[in-house]
Amino acid sequence: MSKITIIGAGSVGSAIANNMVTMGIATEILLIDVNKPKAFGEALDIYQGITFCSPAIVRSGDYADAKGSDIVIITSGIARKPGQTRLELAQTNVNIIKDIAGKIVAAAPDAIYVIVSNPVDVLTYVFHKISGVPEKHIIGSGTALDTARLQSELARRFHISPKNVHAHVFGEHGDSSFVPWSMATIANNHIDDYKELCPEPDAIKWDKNYEELEEFVRTSGAKVIKAKGATFYAVAISVCHICKCIFMGAGTALTVSTMMHGEYGIDDVCLSTLNIVDRDGVRGKIRNKLTAEEVAKLQNSAARLKEVINSVEI
Question: How much is the pLDDT for 86?
C-alpha cells in the first residue's frame, strides 16, 4: 500500500494525480484544495478511468484525511503569468505555504514532502524553516524538470535515447541555473567527444553550443506559458518520477532542491545539485568535482536566491 496526498488540484496537481494513476505509482491518491468542488471533480474524473489502470483509490478530502501518507506533494500557489519570473511570485506563495505547512504536517508528520510550487527553491527553504519536518524528508522538485528538458533536447540533437544522456542542470530552478558541462556525457563519452566517435557524426548538430542550450532550458517554461498559458504536463511527469524513485528505494541520483550545509562554499539555502533519493527521502548529496567556474556559477545562483529569501517575510 502506498498513499500520496497532493495539495493543490489545479493544472499541475491534477496532472500529477492523473499520471500517478496511469503509471501505477500509488494505491491511494488524495487531492486537497481550497476549492473543494474542484478537487472533488478532478478526483472523480481521474478515478473513473481506473478500470484501465492499476487498482487505486482516488478521492478528495481535507487535511485530516492525509493521515498515513507516504508522500505529500505541495503544488498550491499562484501560477506564473506570461512575462513573470518565478521569483516575482515569492511573497504570495510564501504566505500560502506558511498557511498549509502546519495543517498538513499535523496530519502527516512522517511523510516525505515534495515541494513543487514556485519559486520552488525559496518555498523549499521556507518549508524547512517552519515545518519541523526532518531535513531528509523535504525535497524541492528543483531542476529535475530543467534537467529533463536539457536531456530531451540533447537526445534529439545527438540522435540517441535520453537514457544515454547524462547532463544535468544545477542551481536555481530559474534564471541563474546552469549546466556543469565538465561532467556531461553521451553514452559514457564526454559530450564534446561523442560526435567524432559515434556511427553517424554528420547527423549530429553539436558545435559546443553551451550558451544556446542553457538559454533553451531557462526559457522553455516561459515559451510554454506564452503559447498555452501554463506548464503542467512535463512538470507532472518529473514529479511522478521523483515519487517513483522514492518508492523504488534503490537510490537514484536526481537534481532536486535540498538544504546546503557548506558544500561548494554554500550554506543555508536550498538549490539543486545531484542527490541520492530513496525510500527514506534524501540519503545525501553527491559531491561532484566541478570546475572553479562552475562552482562560481553555483555560488552566484545561491546568492540570487538568498536575495529573494531576505526580501520575504517568513
Answer: 67
HEC secondary structure over the chain: CCEEEEECCCHHHHHHHHHHHHHCCCCEEEEECCCHHHHHHHHHHHHCCHHHCCCCEEEECCHHHHCCCCEEEECCCCCCCCCCCCHHHHHHHHHHHHHHHHHHHHHCCCCEEEECCCCHHHHHHHHHHHHCCCHHHEEECCCHHHHHHHHHHHHHHHCCCHHHEECCCEECCCCCCECCHHHCEECCEEHHHHHHHCCCHHHCCCCCCHHHHHHHHHHHHHHHHHHHCCCCHHHHHHHHHHHHHHHHCCCEEEEEEEEEECHHHCEEEEEEEEEEEECCEEEEECCCCCCHHHHHHHHHHHHHHHHHHHHCCC
Q: Where is pLDDT greater, at 145 or 206?
A: 145
- The residues assigned a catalytic role are 173
Predicted structure pTM score = 0.95
